[in-house]
Backbone:
């Protein structure tokens, strides 16, 4: 297992390099001159040119990219912000806790809502309850985040005045953005739980378990759900990674000082190091999330764990 984890960590290196090269290339193709934006409107051309030289914008593309990678490898440095002149790593680490809290609140809402509904839909297949839940799940997947967020603000903040529409200091501030961001994930978990459990329910060994006279509730949780967990865990892990990277709209709507809002501000000012560093940071988190999912597989499925043990025994 340890050898497998180390291999997966080493496999992250080419992914990290590929993502950094693609994002770095795309940022160079975007219109606008960061030096002119930083210098301000009406700045003399000499000052702008001097600023471009200080920022390294006059160097060839490959030279700038190599210097950027060298800074990450040797100093764990993601560069310096053009706008604030502060390290990008510091700005990202300052904004990350808010994004992590939002993602955790969203995935918790998605699991608490999506998993029970999926279980009920699977055990009550083709019933009125099942059809109703599937329609709601389809609506949840289809609703855009910016629209649902604004509707929740209008209902619970403007009209009912139950919950705050901005800020991020208490648990009450997490409710609306957590529901907004987690609604689509809840719908995905619902559909995957239902589909995965229906595949297991149709297996022959479930009929054997029922023939032994075990309670239906025990069969559902001890046999059906347990054997259907791997695809469900996969969806939950992928959704969590997407929640971290896809919180841009939610953080903007609810004025949450997270990485998503930081990226929006950086895009407005052409702060390339902040944009590139944020994307690389989110990509790394997504890859680490997938790694954790693979490790969890071994504990959910004894066959996978036994496979790792056999491979280790052969090498020994």
Residues:
């Amino acid at each position: 297992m340890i050898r497998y984890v180390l291999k997966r960590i080493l496999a992250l290196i080419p992914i990290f390099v590929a993502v950094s090269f693609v994002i770095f290339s795309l940022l160079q193709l975007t219109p606008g001159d960061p030096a002119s934006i930083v210098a301000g409107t009406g700045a003399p051309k000499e000052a702008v040119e001097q600023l471009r030289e200080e920022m390294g914008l006059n160097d060839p593309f490959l030279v700038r990219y190599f210097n950027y990678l060298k800074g990450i490898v040797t100093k764990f440095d993601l560069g310096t912000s053009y706008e604030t002149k502060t390290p990008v790593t510091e700005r990202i680490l300052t904004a990350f806790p808010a994004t992590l809290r939002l993602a955790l609140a969203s995935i918790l809402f998605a699991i608490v809502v999506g998993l029970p509904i999926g279980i009920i839909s699977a055990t009550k297949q083709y019933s009125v309850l099942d059809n109703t839940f599937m329609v709601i799940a389809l609506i949840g997947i289809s609703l855009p985040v910016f629209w649902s967020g604004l509707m929740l603000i209008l209902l619970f903040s403007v009209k009912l005045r139950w919950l705050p529409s901005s800020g991020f200091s208490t648990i009450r501030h997490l409710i609306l953005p957590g529901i907004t961001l987690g609604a689509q994930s809840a719908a995905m978990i619902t559909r995957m739980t239902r589909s995965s459990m229906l595949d297991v329910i149709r297996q022959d060994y479930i009929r054997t378990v029922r023939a032994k006279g075990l309670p239906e509730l025990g069969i559902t949780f001890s046999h059906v759900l347990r054997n259907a967990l791997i695809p469900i865990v996969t969806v939950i892990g992928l959704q969590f990674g997407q929640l971290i990277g896809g919180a841009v709209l939610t953080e903007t709507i609810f004025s949450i000082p997270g990485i998503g809002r930081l990226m929006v501000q950086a895009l407005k000012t052409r702060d390339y190091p902040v944009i590139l560093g944020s994307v690389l940071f989110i990509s790394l988190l997504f890859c680490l999330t997938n790694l954790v999912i693979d490790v969890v597989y071994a504990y959910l499925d004894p066959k996978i764990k036994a496979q790792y043990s056999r491979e280790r025994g052969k090498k020994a």
Summary: The chain is about 80% helix and 0% strand. The mean pLDDT is 83.
